[in-house]
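Lab meeting notes turned into a lecture example. A postdoc, R.K., suggested we walk through two folding results consecutively so the class can see how the record format repeats. The first protein's sequence and structure tokens come next.
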Amino acid sequence: MKKEKQHTIKYNFIMNFILTFSRFVFPLVTFPYVSRILKASGNGKVAFATSIANYFILVASLGIPTYGIRACSEVRDNKKKLSKVVHEIMFINIVMTLLTVIAFLISINVVDKFSSEKELFYINLFGVVLNSIGMNWLFQALEKYDYITIRSIFFKFLALILMFIFVKKQKDYVMYAAISVLAAAGSNVMNLYYSRNYVDYKYFGNYNLKRHLKPIFILFAQSIATTIYTNLDTVMLGF
């Protein structure tokens, strides 16, 4: 792999700080507006659907968001090895996403609480599908924190502008959900496109998926408790 200029630890720290800071600032701007427009009912419906989708995203992702960083870091200076690792991890992720999407579709049509807001849940289903191509773990392994930060802030600004334009009434909660998913989906699509600079997407053969399964499932088990804890209150209130 062609050597690129590596940013300093200080530079990466600043980029991470800006990214983390933006995650606090944007909700401070959007939450009061959304709460005032959508009221408790509309805001609650969106939060409920998002929390349910987060559970499906958790299952589809397994422990890949954490494992992918380590696996790619080990081979990041060899484009062929890095490409094979990315192919293997993405294949596992895509297969799990397909299974998860099927389960989500069944749930939407079987669970009364979901089927009563089908449009809202189908929008979040779209987010689950595109989560499989997010590959944030690849760019973290490559220490592309400037790209991650700029991309994230761009789509946050875009979502903010769209929110002020299209979310005007309480019934616009579906539009608000669509804008939120669009922001994440846009980031994922851009990640896939930008990854071509570092990953060769030709077929290599001799893939070894088995070596990734054990660490992925171990990390998945560790992440279950956190995700359940952070979303359980919203899910319980929704039901």
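The second example is placed directly after the first for contrast:
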Amino acid sequence: MGVNSPIFILSEKQYEDAQNLPVILIKHLSKNIDLSSYEALIFSSKNGVIAIDTLTKSWKNIPSYSIGTGTSKEIEKRGGTIVYEAR
């Protein structure tokens, strides 16, 4: 790779002198969801937390299991309760 070759990043995170390429386009649904019969929720990404928060705020009353610190931070930021974080 030459000195003047462009650098492409497959991420939303911005870096100086690099061009970001979209990896996934996320569209949130507008649906009613009833979580009253669930005892716990498992989140594998912060995008899942963001998505459910747009659908209903009732998820915050249900204990959450998190796969990773980034997901846990999003759960806490939005007012959810983490009972376990996988590392």
